[in-house]
């Protein structure tokens, strides 16, 4: 097993009617920026719950954080916090609002041009330099409620870039599965596939000796397979909703990643498809992931076979056959979850995509990705072309 440190300071508050605990979770005398997205919180009652819990606090509201949050929008919130000397942020929304708030949190006191945070992948490690924040999660998918990473898009250059660091964990996250009841089916489907792929990125690498981490990962995958199709059809079923929410958090709160290699190439390529065509994040993963497993088959086949046997109960004549069937099963699951797994089914202008992405990676100096750094530029090109 690889050496590791486990640090996760987020107070995770799970269950029905937990939003009222904001009254004690938000520091007394805090001057709060309440950040939210396009307005779903006004329709499903979450806004009212939050406002009731924050009665007596000084609150300034900032709405309009887009799905795939934009640097340009977030900078407006940075200005408000600076001008009004606010000292706490509450993110109420899905991954986009939470990620946006992580950027805002780091940018307020950043000395230098804030765009560097994204362009240079600045790491925030000093908690005294960031604005503390908590979250009320409304969409289980990204794990952003219990991790310290974020993804932000620069509108001007159509670039989707990451930021993070140990100072950017939420202080607390309120996770009430009842919020799933108001989610459009498409977003639930996205959430399940995003969480599933997060596990795959940290599991589907090569055989190693971290047995427990493999079992953690497999159990999350099995649970998502078990409940995913049902929760998309029955979002008011609390049993399904609660399992879905906890799976999504556990898929990317750092635990299953400890002591093991991880891949993340599917995400890095997928982010480009969102930046170029605004395809939902999870849907880019469903397009790229299976083709990455195909192109990197020799490198990943032992783990693919393990996944096929343990997660899908596949019995085949050879390890290679089981590994191949495991990819097919994954694609079939994505289809059940409403994904269209070809790029051409998601956008019309796909012909130049591979060349565009390859050029971008070269410009950024990204020569190779993946757990063995063997997803080279030519492999990226093949993966994307195979996805047309
Ligand atoms: O903006 P509002 O009006 O709130 O509507 C949102 C949005 O339109 C809606 N929604 C959220 N909760 C709802 C709801 N509608 C009804 N009822 C509710 N309870 O859903 C839409 C999508 O929301 P968004 O936050 O964009 O989705 P998601 O949570 O999937 O987040 C995606 C973003 O997270 C990033 C992605 O790249 C993408 O930008 N990721 C962040 C990660 C992280 N921080 O660790 C990891 C992921 O791999 C991912 O890259
Ligand atoms: Zn993701």
Folded structure, characterized:
Keywords: Oxidoreductase. This is Iron-containing alcohol dehydrogenase. InterPro entries: ADH_Fe/GldA, ADH_Fe_C, ADH_Fe_CS, BDH-like. Pfam families: ADH_Fe_C, Fe-ADH. With 388 residues, this protein is of the alpha/beta class. It folds into two domains: 169 residues, Rossmann fold (3-Layer(aba) Sandwich); 203 residues, Dehydroquinate synthase-like, alpha domain. Helix content is 48%, strand content 12%. The chain has 15 helices and ten strands. The strands form three sheets. It has a six-stranded parallel β-sheet with strand order 1-8-5-4-2-3, with helices on both faces. A hairpin with a 5-residue loop joins β9 and β10. α7 runs parallel beside α9, α10 crosses α11 and α11 crosses α12. The two termini are 38 Å apart. The model has no long low-confidence stretch (mean pLDDT 97). Zinc ion (ZN) binds next to α7.
Write a concise synopsis of the structure shown.
The protein has 388 residues and is of the alpha/beta class.
Please outline the helices and strands:
Blueprint: E1 11-14, H1 22-25, E2 31-36, H2 40-43, H3 46-53, E3 58-62, H4 71-84, E4 88-93, H5 95-107, H6 115-119, E5 133-137, E6 149-154, E7 159-164, E8 172-175, H7 185-203, H8 211-233, H9 238-251, H10 265-277, H11 281-295, H12 297-312, H13 319-336, H14 353-364, E9 368-369, E10 375-376, H15 377-386
Parallel strand pairs: 1-8, 2-3, 2-4, 4-5, 5-8
Antiparallel strand pairs: 6-7, 9-10
Helix pairs in contact: 4-5, 7-8, 7-9, 7-11, 8-9, 8-12, 10-11, 11-12, 11-13, 11-15, 12-13, 14-15
The chain binds 5,6-dihydroxy-NADP and zinc ion.
Residues 37-41, 44, 67-68, 93-97, 99, 138-139, 141-144, 147, 149-151, 179, 182-183, 187, 190, 194, 252, 267, 281 line the site of 5,6-dihydroxy-NADP (NZQ).
InterPro entries: ADH_Fe/GldA (IPR001670), ADH_Fe_C (IPR056798), ADH_Fe_CS (IPR018211), BDH-like (IPR044731)
Keywords: Oxidoreductase
Pfam family, one: Fe-ADH
């Amino acid at each position: 097993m690889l050496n590791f440190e486990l640090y996760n300071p987020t107070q995770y508050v799970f269950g029905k009617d937990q939003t009222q605990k904001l009254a004690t979770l938000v520091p007394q005398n805090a001057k709060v920026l309440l950040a939210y997205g396009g307005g779903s919180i006004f329709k499903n009652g979450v806004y009212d719950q939050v406002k009731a819990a924050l009665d007596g606090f000084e609150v300034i509201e900032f709405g309009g954080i887009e799905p795939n949050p934009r640097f340009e929008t977030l900078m407006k919130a940075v200005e408000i916090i600076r001008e009004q000397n606010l000292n706490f942020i509450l993110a109420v929304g899905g991954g986009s609002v939470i990620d946006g708030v992580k950027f805002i949190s780091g940018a307020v006191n950043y000395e230098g041009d804030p765009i560097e945070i994204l362009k240079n992948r600045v790491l925030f490690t000093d908690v005294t330099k960031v604005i503390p924040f908590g979250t009320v999660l409304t969409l289980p998918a990204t794990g952003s409620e219990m991790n310290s990473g974020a993804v932000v898009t620069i509108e001007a250059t159509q670039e989707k870039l990451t930021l993070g660091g140990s100072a950017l964990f939420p202080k607390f996250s309120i996770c009430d599965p009842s919020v799933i009841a108001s989610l459009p089916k498409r977003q639930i489907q996205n959430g399940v596939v995003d969480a599933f792929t997060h596990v795959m990125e940290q599991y589907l690498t090569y055989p190693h000796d971290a047995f427990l981490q493999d079992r953690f990962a497999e159990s999350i995958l099995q649970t998502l397979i078990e409940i995913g199709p049902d929760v998309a059809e029955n979002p008011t079923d609390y049993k399904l909703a609660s399992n879905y929410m906890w799976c999504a958090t556990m898929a990317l709160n750092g635990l299953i990643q400890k002591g093991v290699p991880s891949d993340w190439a599917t995400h890095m390529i997928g982010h480009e498809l969102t930046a170029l065509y605004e395809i939902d994040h999870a849907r880019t993963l469903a397009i790229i992931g299976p083709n990455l497993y195909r192109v990197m088959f020799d490198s990943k086949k032992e783990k693919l076979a393990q996944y096929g046997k343990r997660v899908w109960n596949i019995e085949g004549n050879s390890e290679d056959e089981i590994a191949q069937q495991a990819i097919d099963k994954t694609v079939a699951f994505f289809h059940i979850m409403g994904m269209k797994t070809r790029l051409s089914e998601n956008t019309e202008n796909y012909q130049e995509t591979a060349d565009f992405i390859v050029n971008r990676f070269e410009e950024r100096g990204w020569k190779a990705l993946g757990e063995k750094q063997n997803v080279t530029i030519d492999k990226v090109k093949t993966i994307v072309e195979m996805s047309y």
